[in-house]
Amino acid sequence: MKTIIEFIEDPNTGKQEVYELINQVRQEASQNVDQMQMFKFIMNGLEFLEKHGIPVATQKYFVDMREDGKPYTIQLVKELRDHVPLLEFRVNWKGLGAFRAIFFEYYYSNTQILIFTKAIVKKTTYSQEFEKIIQQSELLYSNFLENPNKYINLEEVESNEPS
């Protein structure tokens, strides 16, 4: 089965919030070596996730190399226990905090689509803002199930499927 990542567009704002936060990290990376490291881990982590899909990415550790040549290891994907079926994409980097993106799985035809809803870079273990984006993502999930085509183009997904 093929796995693809989609950044959901908020129908109210027209913004792809997760994509925009990743782009903000990328822009800041040109001036800050720690931002560059975090951006690299986010991008490589997304490739890992798309390559392995769920559930493999929840069971395997993501291993990458830091700029100083040392290994970087993290459990890249975790279930949000009290908010199933939501999942959390995770990248941490010293001094910057923790990049967190909320997503869920959706199956269409022979494709596993990982729908990314909201993201944040949090500085502390507990974050009220993070709890808020979880709640917003739960609502997006319910609304998505009612009308997936409002959020992603399923015809495009199907046309990109190998024959």
Report what the structure shows.
The protein is an alpha+beta fold and 163 residues long. The chain has one domain. The chain is 38% helix and 29% strand. The chain contains five helices and seven strands, in the order βαααββββββαα. Strands 1-7-6-5-4 form a five-stranded mixed β-sheet. It has a two-stranded antiparallel ribbon with strand order 2-3. It starts with a strand and ends with a helix. 26% of the residues are buried. The mean pLDDT is 91.
Tell me the fraction of residues in β-strands, as a range.
Answer: 25-35%
Unreliable spans: none
Overall geometry: globular
**What structural class do the secondary elements suggest?**
alpha+beta
Mean pLDDT: 91
* Main sheet strand line-up: 1-7-6-5-4
Brief sketch in words of this structure:
With 163 residues, the protein is α+β, with helices and mostly antiparallel strands. It contains five helices and seven strands; from the N terminus they run βαααββββββαα. It has one domain (2-154).
